[in-house]
Design goal:
The protein is mostly beta strands. Helices cover 4% and strands 42% of the residues. A hairpin with a 6-residue loop joins β36 and β37. The longest helix is centred in the N-terminal third of the chain and has 11 residues. The chain is elongated, with a radius of gyration of 40 Å.
Length: 564
């Protein structure tokens, strides 16, 4: 039986031309799904509004007939007091083909959708889906506000042909999975936005999964935005090929400690690019047995920018292994992180060869721990044509670049510093093997006005080398000069004595550093100073690698060869 309010309101609408069929109030007994479908069919092709009244007893409408909206219709309740509980199978509510009849070709309008109501399912393991968009035809311009979707196996599923989507000030509560965007959607995906939405998972892993591998393809999703959203016990997975993802001031927490061994956010890109910006993410950990392995895990080769990240352990410890775990060849930029109080290490590179840019940050313990090689560069290319630049300076403090090198055993590190201790002076300092932060830094060498200076005690060799190969640009005095006055580079002398055998000639080979790069100039002389008129005249035939000497048998001969 219709209420007086319904009769009066309907009569009022009948007095206004054009409104008689644009708005329908749905209330009463029977399956609300069937009633809504009938009311939607009665609206004009251009759509309209379906208003759902709150039940007088404060309960939920129960329905088994799925609601299917194929016009530009706003389905609106009276707030959280308006509740629909789905007892059927499949999808509780579906929207697709929601174009007004007068819309220009290929130019859909937006604004249809759900307002101010609660939609409930039969449980997170029921296999039901709360809301489905797109599929049979497009669903462009869907807008929802003040909506709660809870207790379903899947809260929201995107099908083919969804873009210009927005939901705000809404809740996905205790669904088996909150949101799913499959990877095989090859059409749609522009401008998807969740604004001030709270996701509360019945289970943690895969609570929101974008580009989940279904069908072995990659979707066209290219603009996904989260603004001031809460992820409570809800893991966010940005999978392979998710395109442009933007997150502003998100809050992540695992209330009840239900995250297990999963990171709060997983970002992947194995074969297709994924580009993610996280601006001001907050991570709160409630779990202690076990602690989460990390707050963010990046694998493959996505491009990720994280700014002003914060993390807190609610037990006051710093026992989460790391804030950010990187595997693969990702491009990661970290900007101005706030104090990160929850972890043993700030960043860990587990495998791969990522490119990392770390700029700013308030935490003095901001460190990157890597078990594999890393590349620091100023550009996103791989040419290595530009060296990294570190600029430090200012007033009233001593600019210092510090780093710790693990000794390879225990918890001992070699603490190293490069610092400016005076005008035009750069010192290199070490504290020797010690625990982190321990030991005194001693600066035994530095560069002053471009000149290398050693300050080790007298008697200590300032420079030690294990090789005797002369450096190409290091020449000791006395130097060797050509008659023109030009210094001869890298000269050396090879000399020895040889006793000529019975044949009267001997070949002396030059070994290793005694060899020359070109034929040297050599002189030869007999060992004895006693004149022997019958001595054979000495001669020689040098080469870069040996010298042959001719002369009197059984007499010793000196030779001296000079060259470079």
């Amino acid at each position: 039986m219709k209420s007086l309010r319904f009769v009066t309101f309907t009569f009022f609408l009948l007095l206004i031309p054009g409104f008689a069929n644009s708005q329908t109030i749905v209330s009463g007994n029977g399956d609300i799904g069937a009633q809504i479908n009938a009311a939607a069919a009665a609206l004009p092709a251009s759509g309209g509004q379906l208003r759902l009244q709150t039940l007088a007893n404060g309960g939920c409408y129960s329905f088994s007939v799925p609601i299917v909206i194929t016009k530009a219709i706003i389905m609106e309740g009276e707030g959280p007091s308006t509740c629909l509980k789905f007892a059927g199978s499949g999808a509780a509510i579906s929207f697709y083909g929601n174009n007004p009849s007068y819309a220009p070709p290929n130019s859909p309008l937006d604004g249809f959708g759900l307002r101010d109501l609660v939609l409930l399912g039969a449980g997170p393991t029921s296999g039901q889906t709360g809301l489905v968009l797109g599929g049979t035809s497009n669903s462009v311009g869907f807008y929802a506000v003040g909506v709660t979707i809870g207790n379903f196996g899947l809260g929201l599923k995107f099908n083919r042909g969804v873009w210009n989507f927005k939901i705000e000030h809404s809740i996905f509560g205790y669904n088996g999975q909150s949101v799913l965007w499959p990877s095989d959607l090859n059409f749609g995906g522009e401008n998807l936005e969740f604004d001030s939405v709270t996701f509360v998972g019945a289970t943690f892993a895969d609570s929101l999964h974008f580009n989940q591998d279904i069908g072995g393809s990659f979707s066209n999703m290219n603009s996904l935005t989260f603004v001031s959203c809460n992820f409570d016990n809800a893991q966010l997975v940005i999978d392979n090929g998710s395109g442009s993802v933007r997150m502003y001031s998100p809050h992540f927490e695992n209330p009840g400690g239900l995250s297990g061994d999963q990171p709060f956010v997983r970002i992947l890109a194995y074969t297709v690019a994924t580009d993610v910006i996280m601006d001001g993410p907050d991570f709160y950990n409630d779990q202690s047995n076990p602690y989460p392995p990390s707050f963010i895990e990046i694998d493959g080769g996505p491009t990720v920018v994280i700014s002003q990240m914060r993390s807190v352990n609610l037990d006051g410890s710093a026992n989460v292994p790391t804030n950010l775990l990187i595997a693969g060849d990702a491009n990661v930029t970290l900007l101005g992180d706030a104090p990160l109080r929850a972890t043993q290490q700030q960043y860990i590179v587990a495998s791969g060869n990522p490119h990392l840019w770390v700029m700013g940050g308030q935490d003095s313990s901001n460190k990157i721990v890597s078990q594999t090689p890393m590349l620091y560069t100023q550009t996103y290319d791989y040419s290595n044509s530009q060296s990294p630049v570190v600029q430090i300076g200012g007033t009233d403090y001593q600019p210092t670049i510090g780093f710790d090198l693990w000794t390879g055993t225990g918890s001992s590190y070699f603490g190293m510093e490069i610092k400016e201790t005076g005008p035009n002076e750069l010192d290199f300092c070490s504290n020797g093997s010690a625990a982190l932060g321990a030991g005194n830094y001693i600066c035994n060498a530095g560069i002053v006005n471009g000149v290398f200076k050693s300050t080790v005690p007298d008697g200590t060799a300032p420079l030690q080398v294990s090789s005797h190969t002369p450096p190409g640009n290091l020449n000791a005095w006395p130097a060797t000069f050509a008659p023109s006055g030009a210094q001869i580079q890298n000269p050396h002398i090879t000399t020895a004595k040889v006793i000529l055998p019975a044949s009267g000639h001997a070949l002396v080979p030059f070994q290793q550093s005694a060899q020359f790069t070109q034929t040297p100039a050599c002189t030869v002389s007999y060992q004895t100073g006693t004149p022997f008129p019958t001595l054979v005249a000495l001669s020689s035939n040098p080469s870069p690698v040996d010298i042959t000497i001719f002369g009197q048998p059984y007499i010793g001969v000196y030779f001296v060869c000079v060259g470079n």
